Amino acid sequence: MREEASLIATATTLVAFQFGGDDWLTGLSDPLFAGIIFVWLFGVMLWASFGVVRHADALADLLGEPYGTLILTIAVISIEIALISAVMLTGEAAPTLARDTMFAILMIVLNGLVGAALLVGGLRHREQEYNLQGARAFVAVLMPLAVFALVLPKFTVSTSEATFSAPQALFFGVITLLLYGVFLAIQTVRHRGFFQQPLTENLIGHGEPGHAHPSRSAYYHFILLLLALLPIILLSKRLASVVDFGTVRFGVPAELGGVVIALLVLTPEGLAALASARANYLQRSVNLLLGSGLATIGLTVPAVLAIGLLINQPVTLGLDDTGTVMLVLTLVMSAMTFGGVRTNLLQGAVHLVLFFAYVLLIFSP
């Protein structure tokens, strides 16, 4: 029962909002009250996301790589999609939230978390090895999909804004989903070995980092994972309303809404990636972090474009000039970092510098 305390907390919160609590969100005007609601919802959902990670980690131990990290990645990205969809369907003050969230996740993952993982691993182990073929596969698919989604809409002329026309949205939504599906087939079936940690002398005979082998079945953890996800998804609409209010009421940069969602999505996964890098299993960190970046584009873009077409609402995806420069620089640096068989702390430091530049540019564009 103690292990599922987060599930009980999120379920209780959901019931509270379902039976009367939603009235609190209809008249958000007091900043202090809105802050309390935000901390409550964000804290409960973050706690629940750690429960999702725990069950996904158990499935990883039972099923092996890369299935474990893939399950975890898709589980947490579904939280992101639920939050963005809730804002698109109910909010009007954050038309760029989908773009800002995807961009924030890419910057946090590819610069902040990758940089921290390489720095932690480099300080502890000097140099670390990973599977070059797997990392290259991630980057090779991520680069065109990220440019299609976040750069190209700014330069198309079919619409006056940084959006896709209906035919373009249909094409790029379908092609993004298909290419991501091809990648998943490569990752899980045809070239599964590309995404497994190369065995070195100091790893032979040691298990992967984490926790004791699960005592329950894969079916148990899969069902509990779904049950842990459900309240998070159902609460996402409430959190989206508070975020929507905050960006308007306090006049903060709209990009902060995306950062809030990105932090909620990435915190548990990021901690797992850092633990793996510290234990010298860099490949699991690569699978988690690059997998999150790729899934963000591969799953979120088709979802938001489909919703936009269904409700006849154009989705603003194209970044401004500053964001485009940061994205292209990040993708080029990622290709360089994962273009060799070993990493060290210098590469981690460079990625962290890019992340700090991104944070600065949010507040001082």
Give your account of this protein's structure.
By secondary structure, the chain is mainly α. The chain has one domain (2-363): NCX, central ion-binding region (A middle domain of Talin 1, Up-down Bundle), CATH 1.20.1420. The chain has helices at 5-21, 23-26, 31-63, 67-90, 97-125, 132-150, 166-190, 218-249, 255-278, 282-310, 321-337, 345-363; strands at residues 128-129, 342-343. It has a two-stranded antiparallel sheet. 48% of the residues are buried.
For this structure, the CATH topology is A middle domain of Talin 1
What about the largest sheet? 2 strands, antiparallel
- Beta-strand content estimate: under 5%
Number of helices: 12
Order of helices and strands: HHHHHEHHHHHHEH
**What percentage of residues falls in helices of 4 or more residues?**
over 70%
Number of domains: 1
- The class by helix and strand makeup works out as mainly alpha
State the name of the first-level CATH class.
Mainly Alpha
Overall average pLDDT: 84
Query: Which architecture per CATH?
Result: Up-down Bundle
